[in-house]
């Protein structure tokens, strides 16, 4: 599978099945008020981080991976850990 195909598969999965986690990332890592987030979606993904927006947003938000990923294979455990952290606060 090519990098673009992998990236698109991951983004489609996150947007379809994990919009709630994307909203949690926006609230926790970007300071967006959770009550205004509707239909959060990932619009880009790299080893540096993910770009997320939501309905009615006037911009996109970059959520960095700290440290950056070596490759997208390490994404799943990282976003799970980030989701758990975002839910705790």
Automatic annotation (TrEMBL):
Q: Where is the DUF2470 domain?
A: 7-82
Q: Name one Pfam family in it.
A: DUF2470
UniProt xrefs under Gene3D superfamilies: PNP-oxidase-like (3.20.180.10)
Question: What is this protein called in UniProt?
Answer: DUF2470 domain-containing protein
